[in-house]
Predict the structure.
Amino acid sequence: MSARRIFARPARFAAIAPYLWMVLFFLVPFGFVLKISLSQTAIAQPPYTPVFDFTEGRAALAAAFAQLSFDNFRLLISDNLYILSYLRSLVVAVTATLILLLIGYPIAYGMARLPQRWQGVAMMLVIVPFWTSFLIRIYAWINILQHDGLLNQVLLALHIVSAPVVWLSTDSAMYLGIVYSYLPFMILPLYATLSRMDASLLEAAGDLGASPLQAFWLVTFPLSLPGVGAGALLCFIPIVGEFVIPDLLAGSNSLMIGQTLWLEFFTNKDWPVASAAAVALLLLLVPPLVLYDRLQRRQLEANS
Amino acid sequence: MPLLRIEGVAKSFGNFRAVDKLSLDIRAGEFFALLGPSGCGKTTLLRMLAGFETPDEGRILLGGSDIAQVLPHERPVNMMFQNYALFPHLSVRDNIAFGLKRAGMARRDIAGRVAEMVALVKLEGMEKRKPDQLSGGQRQRVALARSLARRPQVLLLDEPLAALDKKLRESTQGELMELQRRLGMTFIIVTHDQEEAMTMAGRIGVMDAGRLVQVATPRNLYEAPASRWIAEFVGDINLFNGEVTSRENGRLTVATPDAGRLAVSELWPPVTRQVVAVAIRPEKVKLSRRAPATDGGASQAINRLEGVVTDVNYLGGVTSYRVKLETGAVVRASMANTARLDVDAYLAGQRVVAWFTADDCLVLEQ
């Protein structure tokens, strides 16, 4: 009896630990953000009202609670700036994810078909750039893309262009930066699905009269869809909220929601509106997150 | 002209010669088994017939035309894979229809053929299931139906029953034979299980180290193996090395260190070597408490070996005995348990005479 109790306590803790983590580091901070998003901006410290003060009794708390309103969310819907930012984020994320898929799939497919001993090498080549700081790699791109940067020098030397082309501060530069940064997140899940695929399935398809191209579309591709889904969501979700890459590489005429949020928070010092934008962004990302979770679970079940 | 003619086909992987200049004819409507230990090249040969490997040299003639370099999807042969290789994302119906759709069959005909195949392998009602919702035996049937659906000229079966348990394997063997007879199709099966090969195949090709060492009916393979290796690979056998000392009226006398002088009947072609092995299958060795009387007839010469029973293994249908001779050699004998109450069973430690006729012996030269 006592032996079981000793054993049960850590086991029970292990079972609730993830939930404890979620509550402490996700739900509680989210509660703060949600509360601020319902407050009004103020020139004060902290820069919003009301402030819940738990020392002043129940009546004061109730009064503070009554001050909360959805005004900031109304502002988000009524002001074009926010709606356009959300739309741009979605467009950028969808476009970038599609480009990533088009580039990442052939790479992952090629990796999965390499001889076993070369697969590890290929995997290293995909991962090694990540050993350098992300910011340094983006700054390197700025160097390459700038007016007298490497790219323009090469293009001029090869007489492909007669005058330097503007690369930096364009959408192309931003897409380049996003695709470059997120490519491993697309390749790795795809590679994981493709390398696990039973080679005899392709032989069976060939045996039954499918050409190699038909075998790919009828067998390989449908069976790799869980990997496609996982890779796409793994890229799409963070790209929607991406701030650094568009800020450094894209022009300033249209903003992604991450940039708008940053502006509200640090330039306008409007914490409540920034918080409302963050809450709205989270709500926007809940459906794809749920989808990702479901895909993951299905893959786990398929593997067991 | 046979349906399938394999001519001097060879295939190497690096330095390993998997198939070594092998030639074989297979007739239309035949149930042929390729039998051999693992690594003997039987699967490589089958994969060359399916088109998954291309031979380094030689020709594979199907109905007179060379298909050695034809891609798998353009060959009129189909294969049933050892792991079945069912498409996990497709239902039973779509798995079976896969090859028909690639062949450009009309939709209505596909539905008809699929229904026919489903009925053939008795999977009615399972059409909408996915492979992971089927039992092992059901998956095996889907794989069979899928490979038969295109009505191939030759069906290749790679260890088709290896994943089934013994009872299911035996009943499926019968069904496969019945199916092959009914469809009149040519089946080539690869197996390492000699009992399976003997049960199902009309002819068996035994492979060793990339070569065909004997092609024969099951009976001839067992009763007249071409070499010592085959004799030992197919079934159990007692072997006594010795030298031919005399020869008269088709009767050889072989002097063996282990079992003394043995009289054996000489078959065609005559034995040319001096150093030979005398082989006798355990079930042809009889045991008795006393030496049997010698029959005067020339063909009934009897070899008698006296010894002590050391092991008795009761296996249900038969009991196998090990008898140790005075020379230290061991003779294995097995006897059918024809009566439920066996008063004649021998016990370990008992002195017995193991005897067999000259006609039941084989003389193996290599």
